């Protein structure tokens, strides 16, 4: 019997996410199995939209991105191959993908990108996958993409195998009115991608200490979110961000993701905090700063930030939805 699959043009939107407890280091490079679990929040103002269509007779995959770098295109083709294998469809696809923010500046474009590609491709191939399966497949594209599939506040379980390493929502986005005020100090592409950084983590003499305490940190942060204890939550996420950068700085080769502007802002935030401001920073593998605050304080904070010459752009994010379908196709 011949199975006829209805191939359709599908569009999906997926958010970037900010990790409060970071993913840094892999125990399986190919499967993107992390050395530790991580905790994040989806960001409602930073997202990727991706349209996918498998077209009979197309000779090669046609991938159109904001920045058509060969590495990014090849990573997407590899991901399409993984999903073609699951569905046993062999057609090539046309894919158009757009970020509403600059790619590769440490704003997690690979997370939103692979989450959107995974969801759109699964439907375009007629696959009926659970959220857990989508998270697992997104992880194969980029580890942090596993966390951009579920809604709101998310935990990615470390897992021991392909099937056990996936992300799940731990609190809905309405649970806590906190915001991530993204402070863009540079829109230039970062010169070191996070992929290399993951490998170098093991060369830092402090990495094994980090791993010893990380499960404890995850338990703590989940509790603080549950209690909506902003003060202790803020202290913990800031310490965690500095720990990640302590690892990158002490790797061989040393990776310095910060720019002078990054440090200026960090010092300013700490100074303001001594004067009573309730806001804490976190930074991923990049130079831009995520300032986490309670929603009620946005106005005061923006007033303080808006005239700083180091900041090129400010993007305010509420906790966001996970990956979802859209009917606004890009082609
Ligand atoms: C610092 O998910 O970009 O943002 O799995 O190699 O694609 P790959 O890495 P990626 O790493 C993200 C690292 C981080 C921390 C985090 O998001 O948890």
- What class, by secondary structure content? alpha+beta
Return the average pLDDT rounded to an integer.
Answer: 94
What is the strand tally?
Answer: 13
Q: Compounds present?
A: ligand DP6
- Gyration radius (Cα, Å) is 20 Å
Your description of this structure?
The protein has helices spanning 70-87, 109-124, 131-141, 194-200, 207-227, 230-249, 260-274, 298-305, and strands spanning 10-21, 26-28, 33-34, 38-55, 62-64, 92-99, 153-156, 167-171, 178-184, 279-282, 289-294, 313-317, 324-326. Helix content is 35%, strand content 24%. Strand 2 and strand 3 form a beta hairpin. By secondary structure, it is α+β, with helices and mostly antiparallel strands. The model has no long low-confidence stretch (mean pLDDT 94). Strands 1, 4, 5, 6, 7, 8 and 13 form a seven-stranded mixed β-sheet that branches. The chain has a four-stranded antiparallel β-sheet with strand order 10-11-9-12. Helix 2 (109-124) packs across helix 3 and helix 5 (207-227) packs antiparallel against helix 6. The chain binds ligand DP6.
Topology:
Layout: E1 10-21, E2 26-28, E3 33-34, E4 38-55, E5 62-64, H1 70-87, E6 92-99, H2 109-124, H3 131-141, E7 153-156, E8 167-171, E9 178-184, H4 194-200, H5 207-227, H6 230-249, H7 260-274, E10 279-282, E11 289-294, H8 298-305, E12 313-317, E13 324-326
Parallel strand pairs: 5-6
Antiparallel strand pairs: 1-4, 1-13, 2-3, 4-6, 4-7, 7-8, 9-11, 9-12, 10-11
Helix pairs in contact: 1-2, 2-3, 5-6
